[in-house]
Amino acid sequence: MRRDVSDFSNRLDIDKLSELLDIPEHRITGALKRKTLQYVRLNPELFRFDKPVSTIEGGTSVFIDTYDVVRGFPKISRTLMLDPALRQHFSSCQKVAVEEKMNGYNTRIALVGDAVFALTRGGFVCPYTTEKARLLIPMGFFSDHPDLVLCGEMVGPDSPYVPKSFYGVESLEFFAFDVREKLTGKPMPVMKRRELLDGYGIKSVRFFGEFDVDKAHLGIPRIIRELGSSMHEGVVIKDPDMVVAPVKYTSSESNCSDLEYAFEFYNDYGRDFFFGRVCREAFQAVEWNEDDESLEKRCLQLGKSILLPMIQTIKKRKAGERIAEDVRIRVQSLDTVTAFEEYLGILGVDAVFGEPEKVGDEYLVRIRKMYKSTSDKTASILNGGMWS
Ligand code: ATP
Ligand code: MG
Prior knowledge:
Layout: H1 14-21, H2 25-34, E1 37-40, E2 46-49, E3 61-63, E4 68-70, E5 77-78, H3 82-89, E6 95-101, E7 105-112, E8 115-119, H4 127-136, H5 139-144, E9 148-155, E10 173-181, H6 190-199, E11 207-212, H7 216-229, E12 234-238, E13 247-250, H8 252-264, H9 271-287, H10 292-318, E14 324-331, H11 334-347, E15 351-353, E16 357-359, E17 362-370, H12 372-382
Parallel strand pairs: 5-13
Antiparallel strand pairs: 1-2, 2-3, 3-4, 6-11, 6-12, 7-8, 7-9, 9-10, 12-13, 14-17, 15-17, 16-17
Helix pairs in contact: 8-9, 8-10, 10-12
C-alpha cells in the first residue's frame, strides 16, 4: 500500500522499505513528514536519510528504481587523550589496527542496478565523484561483489570539497578504508578487507600495523608527529575484527590547518567547529607533557591559525573583494560539469563555474565557491555595523 505524506513521498513503497530496513512503517512515514527522509530529484532518483532514524544512519540512500539501499557511513568517535581512552574503548580486544586518517572527502562507491555510483557522506550521488569512481575502480570488483560498498577517502588537488596537494596525488585518487555490506552496513575485518582490495588493485589507506591495546598509546604519538610534520591528518584506530567501533586521533598541524581554512570563512562555519579544535590542542599538550618551549610553539601556531586568515579576509573585503574559495575539477566529459553544477545548485552551494580548459584529453574547470555570510558580515562591520 502506498500513502501520500508529502510531495514525492508517494514514489516510495513504504511496506517494501520497512521490510528491507527492518524498521516499523510509522518510523518511515514519520521521517517523511519531518523531512528527515528526503526525496532527491536528481538522476538516479533516490530518498536519503538526512539524520539517523531508528537504527538507520544519516546519509543512508534508497534508490527508488531498483530499491538498492546503501547504508550511511557511521560517525567515528574522537579521542583527545589516547591513554586511557584506547584501553577503555577497546577493552574487549587484544590488539588494535592503526590506519592513516586521510584528509579528503568521504565517498561510498556502490553498484546500483547495473551501474556504479559514488555517494557523499550525506547520501547524495555526486556526479563528479561518480565519474572518477568509474575510472578508478575496476568493474570486476562489483561484478564479483555486487552487495558490497567500498568506503574511502577521495584525496587530491582536483577536489571540489577538500583540495589537498601534499599527498602526491596528481588529480583525485580513492583510498579505501572500509568494505561494508550495502544493505546492513556490516564492515569487513581490517586485514581481510586490505587483502581483498589488493587483489583488485584498489588502493587502501596506509597501514601502520597492529598494536597491543595497552601499548598503543605509546606507539601512536610517534606516528602522529611524523604524519603532522608532512601536514597529514592523523590515524584511525580500529578493532581488527571491526566489531568495536573505530576511534580517530589527529595531529596538531592538521588541526591548525583546518582552523586556518575555517577562519578565512569565519561566519560560514559553525562555532562548534572552532571550539572542539581548540580543546584538542589543550588535551594533546597535557598528554604529551610538553615543556615551556613546546607549549610556546603550540600557542603561537594556534593563534596564528586563527587570526592571520581572518585578518586576511577582512583586508580582502576592505579592498572590495568578495570572500570566496577557488577549487577545481578535472573531468573527461563536459556532461559531468553540467550535472555537477546542477548538483551544487540543489545543495544550495553558491558557485561560479569558469570556462572548461582542455588539458590533454580532459577538461579542467575552475570553480569559485562564494561565502556570502562571511562576505556580508565583514562588509557590515567595516561599514559601521555592530557585531551583535
Ligand atoms: P564523523 O561524522 O565521522 O565524526 P567528520 O565529518 O567529523 O566525521 P572527520 O573528522 O574527518 O569527519 O572523521 C571521520 C572521517 O574520516 C570518515 O568519515 C572518513 O571519511 C575519514 N577517514 C579518513 N581515513 C580514514 C580511515 N583510515 N578510516 C576511517 N575513516 C577515515
Ligand atoms: Mg575528514
